[in-house]
Amino acid sequence: MEQRTPDQLVEWAYDQFLEQAADMLAPEQIVDITLEFEQRGAVEATLPNADWSRELGVPVDLERWAEVWIGLLDHQDEFEVIYASYLLPRQQGDDEVHVRWFRHEQA
Question: 58 vs 50, 53, 55, 65, 72, CA distance in Å?
Answer without folding.
Answer: 10, 5, 8, 12, 30
